[in-house]
Write a structure and sequence with these properties.
Layout (H helix, E strand, L loop, with lengths): L3 E5 L5 H11 L3 E7 L2 H11 L5 E5 L5 H9 L10 E4 L15 H29 L3 E5 L12 H20 L6 E7 L2 E2 L2 H5 L4 H6 L7 E2 H12 L9 E4 L4 E3 L2 E2 L3
Parallel strand pairs: 1-2, 1-4, 2-3, 4-5, 5-6, 6-9, 7-8
Antiparallel strand pairs: 10-11
Helix pairs in contact: 1-8, 3-4, 4-5
Bound molecules: NADPH dihydro-nicotinamide-adenine-dinucleotide phosphate (NDP) and 2-hydroxyethylsulfonic acid.
Length: about 250
């Protein structure tokens, strides 16, 4: 069977990086994206032992950069079978009346507009070929709202709406659309949310065994292995210690 081409945004860390590692050993060639070029280069060297890898370094907030990076892909890489919209982060955890406008812009621009920009450049190839699979990484924050989660939750509720909209719009083309909505996954996520405060970041996972990027990668592998007539539409996944966005059973 021909290898499928998967484009992963946010492949420099966490869920995206773990997914790149896992898919490299499956039947996939990889387009790895992120801003940190040195990490992309290192991952390319590592994974090239298993499969063909190319990298694209751009900021998903910059539509012109997204457009030109994808336009400059060599023809053989343009037939993208799987788009994994994973790039995203929370910035801050503040009440609505004191939140930072800069943080709000980052979350809306990266998690919502960035996902749209990449999708706009990749999906037309899929509709033309009448084939493809889009996997959007949402969050439990796109299903439930928690105190001080306000704008991050809004951005992930938007991802949920966009995923459902995509599934409808792309239905005539036989394109699969999946959303995966994790609870607590220990990655660089909380370090970014708390602006480098590693102690506060670690406290989020204290007394529990959180999910790891690898757990989400395994789910992505499973989703991609489904037969042609099967699509896993919407998956929510928690660590066993978590019962809802804010219900965590700590030791
Ligand atoms: P990480 O911080 O470990 O990874 C985030 C990734 O997104 C990095 O590769 C980063 O790459 C990329 N990224 C961030 N901003 C931009 C940007 N402006 N342009 C391009 N790429 C960007 O976090 P996770 O792996 O945990 O997060 C991945 C996804 O999972 C996110 O959408 C997050 O919202 C979601 N999620 C995470 C959960 C968790 O608990 N960790 C739970 C539920 C959902 P670089 O900095 O190199 O650009
Ligand atoms: C990340 C999970 O609970 O921090 O999306 O919002 S949470």
């Amino acid at each position: 069977m021909d290898k499928r081409i998967a484009l992963i945004t946010g492949a420099t860390s966490g869920i995206g990086e773990a997914t790149a590692r896992l898919l490299a050993s499956d039947n996939f060639e990889l387009i790895l994206c992120g801003r940190r070029k040195e990490r992309l280069d290192a991952l390319k060297v590592e994974l090239s032992e298993h499969t063909e890898v190319t990298t694209l370094s751009f900021d998903v907030r910059d539509y012109e950069a997204v457009k030109s990076a994808l336009a400059l892909l060599p023809t053989r890489w343009k037939k993208i079978d799987v788009l994994i919209n994973n790039a995203g982060n929370a910035h801050g955890l503040d009440p609505i009346h004191t939140g930072s406008v800069e943080d709000w812009d980052a979350m809306i621009d990266i998690n919502v507009k960035g996902l749209l920009y990449v999708s706009r450049e990749v999906i037309p190839g899929m509709t033309e070929r009448k084939a493809g699979h889009v996997i959007n990484i949402g969050s439990i924050a796109g299903k439930e709202i928690y105190t001080n989660g306000n704008v991050y939750c809004a951005s992930k509720f938007a991802v949920d709406a966009l995923t459902r909209g995509m599934r409808m719009d792309l239905n005539p083309f036989g394109i699969k659309v999946t959303s995966i909505n994790p609870g607590l996954v220990e990655t660089e996520f909380s370090v970014v949310r708390f602006k480098g405060d590693t102690t506060r970041a670690a406290s989020i996972y204290k007394g529990i065994e959180p999910l790891r990027g690898e757990d989400i990668a395994e789910i992505i592998r499973y989703v991609l292995a489904a037969p042609k007539h099967v699509v896993l539409a919407d998956i929510t996944v928690f660590p066993t210690a978590q019962g809802a966005a804010t219900l965590v059973n700590r030791a």
